[in-house]
User: What shape does this take?
Amino acid sequence: AQSVTQPDIHITVSEGASLELRCNYSYGATPYLFWYVQSPGQGLQLLLKYFSGDTLVQGIKGFEAEFKRSQSSFNLRKPSVHWSDAAEYFCAVNQAGTALIFGKGTTLSVSS
Amino acid sequence: GAGVSQSPSNKVTEKGKDVELRCDPISGHTALYWYRQRLGQGLEFLIYFQGNSAPDKSGLPSDRFSAERTGESVSTLTIQRTQQEDSAVYLCASSRGTSGRADTQYFGPGTRLTVL
Assistant: This one.
């Protein structure tokens, strides 16, 4: 069965420091991968997505993610974190053109 | 343009009562999804509507849960005889429905349901 694992439940990063959030997936076919962000009291907002082609994808708010098939990973990165990036981040894979399968999320705290 | 809207934003109910949650998708989006987010958990798929096709109900946790959609517009998720374990945030999403797995799903703000 398809699954998404986000190994880190909670991460704290200093403002201005770099960030990497991990995501591993289990999926037999070519995965369609997504990263969403959920700020407190808000719905989920799409940061970026990967379907094919260049394995490094750029998203909104300065985020990028790299697809590594050999590691079944799709890690999210940002070179310099801002306080406004504090939120919960979800990695997801699309199965069969219907539902997204989500990881349990990583909560990001930003310290000053 | 307007995004996905959901109502109510918060709902508190007593165990055993029925509740209805509403979702207004983005205009023109043929696909609509319901997810449930329990505390500390990721999102769980509940049900998916695509145009006039039969809905994919494979994620509904029990027969107390049902959903309807009128054409390509409003959807209502109904939970009968609510239980405390139904307490969660219920999220609705819509997408154009034209790109299969590549479709981007746009989420509403959710309805927080609390069952006492």
Observations:
- The interface with chain B takes residues 4, 32, 34, 36, 41-46, 49, 51, 90, 92, 94-105 of chain A (CB under 8 Å).
- The CA atoms of residues 9 and 106 of chain A lie 5 Å apart.
- The mean pLDDT of chain A is 92.
